[in-house]
Amino acid sequence: MAAHQEKKPSEERKHKSTQNGTRTSQVQWGRAWEVDWFSLASILFLLMFAPLIVYYFIMSCDQYQCSLIDPLIDLLTGNKHLFDIWNKTPTLTYRAAGIYTLWVTFQVFLYVFVPDFCHKFLPGYVGGVQEGAVTPAGVVNKYEINGLQAWIITHVLWFANAYYFHWFSPTIIFDNWIPLLWCANILGYAVSTFAMIKSYFFPTNAKDCKFTGNFFYDYMMGIEFNPRIGKWFDFKLFFNGRPGIVAWTLINLSYAAKQQELYGQVTNSMILVNVLQGIYVLDYFWNEAWYLKTIDICHDHFGWYLGWGDCVWLPYLYTLQGLYLVYHPVQLCTANAVGILMLGLIGYYVFRMTNHQKDLFRRTNGNCKIWGKKPEYIECSYMSVDGTKYYSKLMTSGFWGWARHFNYTGDLMGSLAYCLTCGFEHILPYFYIVYMTILLTHRCIRDEHRCFSKYGKDWKRYTAAVPYRLIPGIF
Ligand code: NDP
């Protein structure tokens, strides 16, 4: 990426600059320094309700066949009390605690102790030690990229167990889903709290910490930018990708196994969910080095939003379609199945190509071809905290000329495809597309706010050249 082209900037591309009047505003990029009342209210809302939302969804499937309305009707009519529902909820078990501890320990082991070997024999795959983006303090972190390897080893073991060893049932995740929820919550809260304490007492890089003075905001959005233990255990990379995203495909496989156990067959809708989400997960690991340059890794600080979100929100709510299909096995007619498959694949193509175009453009510093032509771009500059000036480029060609976040549009098309596999009987599986639309629209606004703080008037020139965010001509 161009901003990262300046990892080893030549003197003409990088110089100390204090005379520039925009310096104070331009070094504010990264997450907010000050908290407005709306952000605070949203954060308090999420801290209080996000765990309840997850519980409500999972409980609805467990006790109400995935109906989101029936529990409310029962409660409002007095048919049931809150404690009736709570009393029927499975509790934390030693078995779930053991499974979860083993799972997380195994993923830590694969992350920390097994250096990547996939890049040595997979052509085109970028793994091993890679550099991240320049942080606001001007630091360039190194990462061991071995997620694809962790995913492959984990899945080979999973299939070896299912078809050969039979140490545990392939439905193990589904069968322990609520007890595992309590374990995931314990880890999510523990890691977020630890990250907060660490940022006060032993931060990895004190210059990349942000203290707003508001406890709740700091807890939620994080203080440390790249908390680490030792040289390689990076909290953001680990929790972002593993255990949550490695688990995603295993969770779906467990749902498919449950369908097989209950109904003697796996429906085409379940296969579609497994395939489409499997492509998305594999794409993540194939491009893990590229993810070092995405907002999660290069702009977000590590707090509850990422810590708890990666442990609980992602594995539990991103997999709702598979869970739903265990309770409601939908067999799609061929036309619908093909239509959904096409929507998912086209969405994935748009998502991947848009991301690829930016990556190629930034890696080559604009010396590449986009749709057969030399890309057009806007030159821009920004400063790090120490006053060092960097130069970057914003592309206005390819999908990036259509809209400023067309990668999100592709992601949303894919997300809609997952939901459509479940038919239209219940709203629960559609939570994902509603959530992704809110997440990515909010992300557009958040990212653009940050980019404006970073690039100032250059960003305005860019938005004038590419006026739409997600859908050309509409938004
Ligand atoms: P982007 O990959 O779009 O990165 C945005 C950054 O790219 C900007 O901050 C800016 O960074 C740079 N940039 C913006 N416009 C241009 C341009 N025209 N030319 C060159 N560089 C530009 O966003 P994300 O990191 O949010 O998303 C990455 C992918 O991950 C997306 O496809 C998204 O859909 C997906 N995603 C999925 C989520 C999920 O939960 N499933 C959650 C979040 C993201 P700089 O400072 O370097 O200029």
Task: Explain what the structure shows.
This protein is mostly helical. It folds into two domains: 90-331, no CATH class; 334-474, no CATH class. It is built from 23 helices and seven strands. The strands form three sheets. A three-stranded antiparallel beta sheet has the order 1-7-6. The longest helix has 30 residues, at 334-363. 40% of the residues are buried. The chain binds NADPH dihydro-nicotinamide-adenine-dinucleotide phosphate. The site of NADPH dihydro-nicotinamide-adenine-dinucleotide phosphate has 20 residues, from helix 19, strand 7, helix 21 and helix 22. NADPH dihydro-nicotinamide-adenine-dinucleotide phosphate binds at residues 1, 3, 294-295, 351, 355, 358, 362, 392, 394-395, 400, 405, 407-408, 411, 443, 447, 451, 454.
